[in-house]
Recover the amino acids of this structure.
């Protein structure tokens, strides 16, 4: 399987990835606190999937010949009219409208390409479909937003779909997994 990731200049995108599957199989999707929009093509049929925050690792299956690419949004980014808490631990197939468009809520959106992800996301922001909570972005960067701790906690839960404590647990689990993948000891991964 060929897999490629690239960073993004967009303030809304964490990274963009793509893969071409040579053999059928599966992998473990790690817990995360962000949206992922995935485009899958197999036998000239395209599927669009939206995944919300995930508090536990999930197995993801794939088929030989499948071409995938996706946009991983930053944690402070949210889809208007679709609370992340409603998508907690869920991945849903979005309805297709013809061969080149899909439906997200009441909006029909043309499928972008790997190379046009930033323009696609800019368009979603301009149409008001995608939004960002700047206070949460600042808090995630460990800056002190101009609000009380309780207000920050409410904003965090509403924006990300997880409590601050859950987000911290997810981040620690992802970090530990990556360290173990690099060959570090369990003791090193635990701290």
């Amino acid at each position: 399987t060929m897999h490629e990731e690239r960073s993004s200049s967009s303030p809304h995108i964490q990274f963009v990835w793509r893969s071409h599957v040579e053999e059928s199989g599966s992998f473990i999707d790690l817990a995360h606190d962000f949206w992922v929009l995935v485009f899958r093509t197999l036998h000239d049929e395209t599927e669009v999937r939206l995944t919300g925050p995930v508090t536990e690792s999930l197995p993801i299956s794939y088929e030989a010949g499948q071409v995938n690419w996706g946009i991983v949004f930053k944690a402070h980014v949210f889809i208007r009219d679709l609370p992340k808490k409603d998508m907690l631990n869920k991945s849903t197939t979005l309805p297709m409208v013809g061969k080149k468009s899909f439906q997200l809520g009441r909006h029909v959106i043309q499928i972008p390409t790997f190379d046009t992800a930033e323009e696609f996301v800019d368009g979603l922001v301009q149409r008001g479909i995608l939004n960002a909570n700047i206070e949460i972005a600042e808090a995630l960067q460990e800056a002190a937003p101009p609000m009380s701790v309780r207000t920050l906690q409410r904003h965090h839960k509403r924006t990300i779909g997880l409590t601050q404590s859950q987000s911290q647990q997810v981040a620690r689990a992802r970090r530990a997994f990556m360290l173990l993948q690099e060959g570090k000891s369990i003791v090193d991964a635990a701290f």
